[in-house]
Amino acid sequence: MPSGFLLGSSKLSLLLSSLLLSAHPSLAQQTNVARILIYSATADFRHDSIPTAVDALMKLGPHSNIAFDHTEDKTWFNDDTLAQYDALLFLSNTGEVLDDAGKTALRNYLDLGGNFVAVHAASDALRNTTWYQEEVGAAFDYHPEITNANVDVVGPPHPSTAGLMNVWPVRDEMYNFKSDPRAIGAVVVLSADESNPGPRKYDQGTPHPTAWYQEHGAGIDENGTAGRSFYTSLGHLNETWKDSLFLGHVMGGITWTLQSNTTGAFNASARVGNGVPTSNGTNSSSTASHSGTGTSSPR
């Protein structure tokens, strides 16, 4: 079991609100709501923890001035719809979850400075799309059986690790990757603690990368606007998405991502995000509800 508290939703929300505001004091002063689209479509293996994860994020969003929307409809991936969001969150996606039109819209969004968060199996999606893999940071290779493991906090201080002990015991899958995310500029914040990793086909670097961030979206058009990206490979089990330490880790990564200088909710010069006019001239904040509870229905 993870080492955090398994709390009721109200107590968990209060705890995480305190943790997040201590990590990001500016959130308390922000009156605009950041909008994030959760995309959890799968084409191969499907995690049964996806509904639990979506529910947890929806409940925690209002405590960080975030309105989450959720879809598994790939037709949402068009320029006007994506432009409404300050960040996209890919949640345990597997396989080819976007068609060519959707990939083009995603790439356009990232080139305009859109921010990106990916969780767990999202590193196993769009396997033949190099720029997507680089936006995540590395492509999934394999994992051993789910295990009790220690994860080490490494690298510089970061909101995604602010509430963690230096050695964090978890029960999860320890992902291995086809490349070292540090090779494209990612900064690793969590590493799997392993004494005898055994032979690997690919060099993923040392220490074993488990979660990381990128200050800009690597691998996208070099003339594009730089956004932020964050990835964590943890999040396999339903109980993980009820654990206070894990949720603090994920929400810390999300709130850090939203502090980029390309977030429309907080920067008048941004080209995507809440409040940025869409191509039809309407303000993006008026095109869908952002009450903080989110929606799962197409617009």
UniProtKB/TrEMBL annotation:
Q: Alphabetically list the UniProt keywords.
A: Signal
Tell me the ranges covered by the ThuA-like domain, including all copies. Answer: 35-257
What is the protein's species of origin?
Ganoderma sinense ZZ0214-1
Compositional bias ranges of the Low complexity kind: 273-299
Q: Where is the signal peptide?
A: 1-28
Checking PANTHER family in the record gives:
GALACTOSE-BINDING DOMAIN-LIKE SUPERFAMILY PROTEIN (PTHR40469:SF2), SECRETED GLYCOSYL HYDROLASE (PTHR40469)
**Region named Disordered:** 269-299
Q: What is the top-level taxon of the source organism?
A: Eukaryota
Specify the protein name. Answer: ThuA-like domain-containing protein
